[in-house]
Protein backbone atom coordinates (compact mmCIF):
# COMPACT_ATOMS: atom_id res chain seq x y z
CA UNK A 1 0.00 0.00 0.00
CA UNK A 2 2.86 2.37 0.69
CA UNK A 3 4.11 2.00 -2.89
CA UNK A 4 0.68 2.86 -4.29
CA UNK A 5 0.43 5.89 -2.00
CA UNK A 6 3.92 6.96 -3.08
CA UNK A 7 2.96 6.67 -6.76
CA UNK A 8 -0.26 8.61 -6.24
CA UNK A 9 1.53 11.40 -4.37
CA UNK A 10 4.40 11.62 -6.87
CA UNK A 11 2.54 10.72 -10.06
CA UNK A 12 4.43 12.88 -12.57
CA UNK A 13 7.82 11.97 -11.13
CA UNK A 14 6.99 8.27 -11.14
CA UNK A 15 6.26 8.50 -14.88
CA UNK A 16 9.54 10.29 -15.49
CA UNK A 17 11.46 7.70 -13.45
CA UNK A 18 9.65 4.87 -15.25
CA UNK A 19 10.56 6.47 -18.58
CA UNK A 20 14.22 6.69 -17.54
CA UNK A 21 14.13 3.04 -16.45
CA UNK A 22 12.74 2.07 -19.87
CA UNK A 23 15.50 4.08 -21.56
CA UNK A 24 18.09 2.28 -19.43
CA UNK A 25 16.53 -1.08 -20.34
CA UNK A 26 16.89 -0.14 -24.01
CA UNK A 27 20.65 -0.09 -23.46
CA UNK A 28 20.56 -3.63 -22.08
CA UNK A 29 17.86 -5.07 -24.34
CA UNK A 30 18.22 -3.28 -27.67
CA UNK A 31 15.32 -3.49 -30.05
CA UNK A 32 14.06 0.06 -30.39
CA UNK A 33 10.61 -0.12 -28.88
CA UNK A 34 11.70 0.47 -25.25
CA UNK A 35 13.29 3.73 -26.37
CA UNK A 36 9.97 5.05 -27.60
CA UNK A 37 8.08 3.74 -24.58
CA UNK A 38 10.62 5.48 -22.33
CA UNK A 39 10.17 8.72 -24.19
CA UNK A 40 6.38 8.29 -23.93
CA UNK A 41 6.74 7.75 -20.17
CA UNK A 42 8.82 10.89 -19.75
CA UNK A 43 6.37 12.91 -21.87
CA UNK A 44 3.46 11.56 -19.83
CA UNK A 45 5.26 12.65 -16.67
CA UNK A 46 5.86 16.13 -18.09
CA UNK A 47 2.21 16.44 -19.16
CA UNK A 48 0.93 15.37 -15.72
CA UNK A 49 3.44 17.65 -14.02
CA UNK A 50 1.82 20.72 -15.61
CA UNK A 51 -1.73 19.36 -16.03
CA UNK A 52 -2.77 16.93 -13.29
CA UNK A 53 -4.68 13.97 -14.75
CA UNK A 54 -6.46 10.98 -13.23
CA UNK A 55 -4.55 7.68 -13.30
CA UNK A 56 -6.68 6.07 -16.03
CA UNK A 57 -6.16 9.12 -18.24
CA UNK A 58 -2.41 9.06 -17.56
CA UNK A 59 -2.28 5.42 -18.70
CA UNK A 60 -4.27 6.35 -21.79
CA UNK A 61 -1.83 9.18 -22.62
CA UNK A 62 1.12 6.83 -22.08
CA UNK A 63 -0.44 4.11 -24.24
CA UNK A 64 -1.34 6.45 -27.08
CA UNK A 65 2.08 8.14 -27.05
CA UNK A 66 3.81 4.74 -27.01
CA UNK A 67 1.78 3.30 -29.87
CA UNK A 68 2.03 6.41 -32.03
CA UNK A 69 5.78 6.80 -31.53
CA UNK A 70 6.50 3.09 -32.14
CA UNK A 71 4.30 3.09 -35.26
CA UNK A 72 6.03 6.21 -36.60
CA UNK A 73 9.46 4.70 -35.88
CA UNK A 74 8.59 1.47 -37.69
CA UNK A 75 7.17 3.34 -40.70
CA UNK A 76 10.21 5.59 -41.01
CA UNK A 77 12.94 2.98 -40.51
CA UNK A 78 11.65 -0.20 -42.13
CA UNK A 79 11.37 1.16 -45.68
CA UNK A 80 14.64 3.07 -45.60
CA UNK A 81 17.45 1.57 -47.67
CA UNK A 82 20.59 0.78 -45.73
CA UNK A 83 23.43 2.97 -46.94
CA UNK A 84 26.78 1.24 -47.28
CA UNK A 85 30.05 1.70 -49.10
CA UNK A 86 29.96 -1.99 -50.12
CA UNK A 87 26.44 -2.70 -51.42
CA UNK A 88 27.38 -6.10 -52.93
CA UNK A 89 29.18 -7.40 -49.84
CA UNK A 90 27.17 -10.60 -49.40
CA UNK A 91 26.14 -10.90 -53.04
CA UNK A 92 29.29 -12.46 -54.39
CA UNK A 93 27.86 -13.49 -57.74
CA UNK A 94 26.71 -9.92 -58.48
CA UNK A 95 30.37 -8.86 -58.71
CA UNK A 96 30.85 -11.16 -61.70
CA UNK A 97 28.09 -9.82 -63.98
CA UNK A 98 29.51 -8.92 -67.38
CA UNK A 99 32.92 -10.46 -66.71
CA UNK A 100 34.44 -12.58 -69.47
CA UNK A 101 36.23 -15.82 -68.50
CA UNK A 102 37.39 -19.07 -70.09
CA UNK A 103 35.64 -22.40 -69.45
CA UNK A 104 37.74 -25.06 -67.67
CA UNK A 105 35.33 -27.87 -68.44
CA UNK A 106 32.91 -28.01 -71.35
CA UNK A 107 29.26 -27.21 -70.83
CA UNK A 108 27.45 -30.49 -71.46
CA UNK A 109 23.69 -30.88 -70.96
CA UNK A 110 23.57 -27.27 -69.77
CA UNK A 111 26.24 -27.42 -67.03
CA UNK A 112 30.03 -26.99 -66.85
CA UNK A 113 32.74 -25.42 -64.69
CA UNK A 114 35.09 -22.47 -64.74
CA UNK A 115 37.69 -21.00 -62.40
CA UNK A 116 37.82 -17.41 -61.19
CA UNK A 117 40.58 -16.59 -58.77
CA UNK A 118 40.85 -19.52 -56.40
CA UNK A 119 37.25 -20.68 -56.76
CA UNK A 120 35.70 -23.16 -59.15
CA UNK A 121 32.18 -22.21 -60.21
CA UNK A 122 29.44 -24.31 -61.73
CA UNK A 123 28.00 -22.63 -64.80
CA UNK A 124 24.88 -23.12 -66.88
CA UNK A 125 24.31 -22.19 -70.48
CA UNK A 126 24.35 -23.57 -73.99
CA UNK A 127 26.66 -26.52 -74.69
CA UNK A 128 30.16 -25.11 -75.31
CA UNK A 129 33.66 -26.70 -75.49
CA UNK A 130 36.37 -26.26 -72.83
CA UNK A 131 38.54 -23.21 -73.51
CA UNK A 132 35.59 -21.22 -74.91
CA UNK A 133 35.45 -17.59 -73.78
CA UNK A 134 32.10 -16.85 -72.07
CA UNK A 135 30.40 -13.81 -70.50
CA UNK A 136 28.61 -14.09 -67.16
CA UNK A 137 25.05 -12.81 -67.57
CA UNK A 138 23.34 -13.89 -64.36
CA UNK A 139 23.29 -16.22 -61.40
CA UNK A 140 20.91 -18.74 -59.90
CA UNK A 141 22.17 -19.22 -56.36
CA UNK A 142 25.78 -20.37 -56.75
CA UNK A 143 25.39 -21.37 -60.42
CA UNK A 144 26.56 -18.71 -62.86
CA UNK A 145 24.63 -18.29 -66.11
CA UNK A 146 26.87 -17.73 -69.12
CA UNK A 147 26.69 -17.06 -72.84
CA UNK A 148 29.40 -17.23 -75.51
CA UNK A 149 31.51 -14.07 -75.58
Automatic annotation (TrEMBL):
Keywords, comma-separated and alphabetical: Membrane, Transmembrane, Transmembrane helix
GO cellular component: plasma membrane
Primary localization class, coarse: membrane
Its membrane topology: Multi-pass membrane protein
TM segment ranges: 12-29, 57-74
InterPro entries xrefs: Membrane_assoc_protease (IPR052165), NA-bd_OB-fold (IPR012340), NfeD-like_C (IPR002810)
Localization terms from the record: Membrane
Protein name: NfeD family protein
